[in-house]
Amino acid sequence: MVIRTKDLCKFYGEGTNMVKALDNVNISVERGELIGVVGRSGSGKSTLLNMLGALDRPTSGSVEIGGQDISKMNDEQLTAMRRSKIGFIFQNYNLIPVLNVYENIVMPIQLDGKKPDTQYIRSILDALEISHKISALPASLSGGQQQRVAIARALANRPEIVLADEPTGNLDEAMGEGVVNMLRFMNREFDQTIIVVTHDQDVAEKMNRNIRVADGRVSS
User: Can you name the CATH fold of 34-57+85-218?
Assistant: First the structure.
């Protein structure tokens, strides 16, 4: 088991103003799964992804990554765990404008005091068909190319888990389909566990399994 949540809750506010973003959520994810997290806007799916990625702390309950309860870790331990085990793909790419493609990809590895595996990164860039853009700045790239750089960055440290938050949300249909195909390729070729938050039914149908969230609860 790669990921498990136990009675996971995340509440905001108090009393009559309390919002139960997650309410006793119990899920488990096996290694190598390709999973969609689906639901309407405000259902709690992005909150769930943030919890699984240790970007936020639960109100109660627990999140286990590789058998470790991350809700009991301090900030330093969480940072180390995120860098070593989890790759994030954000909807807005989060690329640094003054760094070129290669520098954006390797920066998280270098921040961790490690040496990038240049050959492995080159293989990712080849697979993503952006090797020719390795020295380009983000502003010169199309939206689809920027998203592929974000995917390469998420893969560069060989994480066990890749979490993607609406990765096709800012892309047109053709570019979005390309990103989904690349996620499927990553899952198959690199044996990574991939969890994709999406409101797009077409994207959800291309996942191997879907977790449906409604009103902070897993409905199916």
Answer: Rossmann fold (3.40.50)
